[in-house]
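Hi V.,

Quick status before I head out on leave. The structure for the redesign project is tokenized and pasted below; the design run finished overnight.
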């Protein structure tokens, strides 16, 4: 028996299977992309919190040294006791920050070891792709629609549901088959004597008790649901991508502002320390400049860490992250 025509039911069934395969492939790509993203973020966090720890540890040491200087002056009657209590409080504050950032580093290392069990711990942030900030929203959207695996999965699932509706429609219509068969009618001897029959068979369900109509309605409802799901996914990812791109465009000015604050506070710290040597500056002013320098250092490092994460979040949304790390799913 050979199928001749079934109103595209078989072809639609094959196309449906291919679309479902593409959907599963896109789902696997999304899982791999998420794994890459999490591993990159763990790398960034370890690098950033390592730098945080070193920076705050150095500041804590300077706070301790300032406290000891103030203590010597208080013991010599050159300063009021309240200045020592203030120095002790600032030292404790710096130490509390050090403990907190050490805890963050420990947590980051634990997450890093999930993805890199034996690698050395990173101490430098990865290089940045500065070209992203010059992209337009339209360019970003085209990349997103072409590469984002969650969108590709939604599109393939919708395509499969459309083919399924066509398959159901075709199966409810007549089917034409070519049939060829033969039977040996002389069973008493070895013989090549056969009756041969060939013909065209037209089959059609005259009555199914509403089964075909129910299947059609179900297929149409599934297609509508997949269409709505696809639209919702695209709107959500596009909104996240647009926001991420806007943030990336603001990164250079943001980093520059934090760098200027860092440089100004570093210079202020240097001058205050020089003046302290000649007793021409209040001890509390010295403590304040150290505190301002620490806070500006933290703010700059956090801005750099956040900018790194933002850029990789963007490439995850556009689907470029896998390509950037030479990942292919075949």
């Amino acid at each position: 028996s050979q199928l001749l025509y079934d109103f595209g039911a078989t072809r639609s069934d094959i196309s449906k299977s291919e679309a479902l395969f593409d959907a599963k492939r896109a789902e696997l790509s999304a899982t791999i992309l998420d794994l890459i993203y999490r591993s990159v973020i763990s790398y960034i966090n370890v690098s950033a919190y390592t730098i945080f720890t070193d920076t705050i540890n150095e500041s804590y040491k300077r706070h301790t040294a300032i406290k000891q200087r103030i203590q010597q002056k208080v013991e010599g009657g050159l300063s009021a006791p309240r200045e020592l209590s203030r120095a002790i409080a600032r030292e404790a504050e710096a130490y509390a920050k050090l403990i907190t950032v050490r805890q963050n580093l420990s947590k980051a290392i634990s997450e890093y070891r999930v993805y890199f069990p034996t690698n050395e711990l990173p101490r430098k942030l990865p290089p940045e792709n500065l070209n992203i900030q010059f992209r337009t929203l339209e360019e970003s959207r085209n990349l997103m629609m072409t590469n984002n695996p969650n969108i590709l999965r939604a599109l393939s699932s919708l395509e499969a549901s459309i083919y399924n509706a066509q398959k159901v429609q075709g199966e409810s219509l007549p089917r034409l088959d070519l049939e060829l068969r033969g039977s040996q009618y002389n069973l008493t001897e070895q013989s090549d004597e056969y009756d041969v029959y060939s013909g065209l068979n037209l089959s059609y369900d005259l009555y199914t008790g509403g089964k075909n109509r129910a299947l059609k309605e179900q297929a149409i409802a599934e297609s509508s649901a997949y269409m709505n799901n696809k639209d919702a996914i695209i709107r959500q990812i596009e909104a996240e991508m647009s926001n991420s791109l806007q943030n990336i465009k603001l990164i250079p000015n943001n980093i520059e502002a934090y760098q200027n604050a860092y440089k100004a506070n570093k210079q202020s710290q240097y001058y205050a320390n020089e003046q302290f040597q000649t007793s021409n500056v209040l001890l509390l002013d010295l403590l304040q400049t150290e505190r301002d320098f620490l806070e500006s250092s933290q703010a700059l490092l956090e801005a750099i860490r956040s900018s790194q994460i933002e850029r990789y979040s963007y490439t995850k949304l556009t689907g470029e992250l896998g390509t950037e790390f030479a990942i292919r799913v075949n």
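Above is the designed sequence. DSSP finds seven helices and three strands in the chain.

G. will cover questions while I'm gone.

Best,
W.
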